Amino acid sequence: MNLKVFILALSTIAVGLVELIIGGILPTIADDFNISLSSAGQLITVYALIYAIAGPVLLVLTSKIERKKLYLASLFIFFLGNVMTYFSPNYIFMMIARVLTAASTALIVVLSLTIAVKIVAPSHRAKALGLIYMGISSSLVLGVPLGILLSNIFGWRIIFLGIAALSIGSMVLISIFLERIPGERTIPLSQQLKAAGSAKIGSAHLSTVFMLAGHYTVYAYFTPFLETNFHLNSYWISIFYFIFGIAAVGGGAFGGTLSDRIGTHKSIVIVISAFAICLCLLPLTTFSLVLFIPMMMVWGALSWALAPPLQSYLIQIDPATSDIQQSLNNSALQIGISLGSAIGGLVLNNSGTVSSTAWFGSGVVIISLLFAVFSLTRPAIARENTNSPASFQRS
Q1: For the chain, which end, N or C, has fewer CB atoms within 10 Å of the first or last residue's CB respectively?
Q2: pLDDT tens figures, 267-298
Q3: CB count, 10 Å around CB of 27?
Q4: Structural domain tally of the chain?
């Protein structure tokens, strides 16, 4: 695999840590700023909202800018945001810093995805995307336990100074190894959004939303799931999170490799179907750790295995708007995380049993499968070359 793809993946690890690493240190931040825990939680909510919106908007606004220059500029803003977080004297200042890091992270991640597919052969496209998603997934799933560990040893502020240092390392690697990549002619935003609103592309994005929603219906409440079923203490819970995280990191590479070997269509259906079955069976294995741990690892791997084949699928069906579609799909991922957390909370409040989140999560994933099948069976999108920027119509 191209060395540059590995460098891009490393960059996504550095920038991705900022999003959820704060989840495990919210009580400490709340105490430091003398605010409520719910107010501190808004640091995550606002971040996710800005991330989801900023990616597609900034990608369109910066489409003509040379990509390497834009990547380095985004990393510099990300660096500033983390330094601001380290020195934050109050809650408002930190919230401003979070907005800066969210916007820059959104652009860095989507640039990593779009650049990766441009610098490898088409036959290795899904594998390249899989490596990028290994970076994204590793930062998301390992962020919380890493944040707790480092905060207990060094204090919460040093975490963001360390992330700022990692961003400097990414800037050095990108400046040395990545070649200049020119910007591209802009297709009007209205036309790109029209493509996203088509039955074929729109349902593909919704498949991502409900896949992640089904996952986070369970994963957002994984700690009480483990406490209730296995009576584990915080030490062993962190071990389980680590095992899950390792499996999730490998899931991105697995999804990309599978897609390159058997094609995007079959991969999408297989991954979503297997994921729904896995979540449905998960509570049935809680009587034995020997059965539960392998099932948990399969759950972790499949949770991030859909992204590479689905992103590759979006590129195949409409190459002209592939950049914005990759960005929108990344936003769909964020929406799915928020939706799943909310669904899981409702299930927990109404059912009273944390294991039921897995069954409801499985049902949500089936909705994802229905949207995926609907997308795969829609007519292809055809584009006509005219004097105006490409217009699209159904074939």
Answers
A1: C
A2: 999 999 999 999 999 999 999 999 999 999 99
A3: 12
A4: 2
